[in-house]
Amino acid sequence: PVPHAMDGIQPHPKMTATRYGLTTRLLQGSPQMLRTLVLILALAFPIASSAVEADTDLLSMDASWNELRMKPDIAGLERILADDWMLTHSDGRVQYKADYLDELRTRTRRNQGIGNEDLRLRRYGDTLVVTGTSVQSGISNGQPRNGRFRFTRVWVKRDGAWKMVSSHSSRVAQ
Question: pTM of the prediction?
Answer without folding.
Answer: 0.66
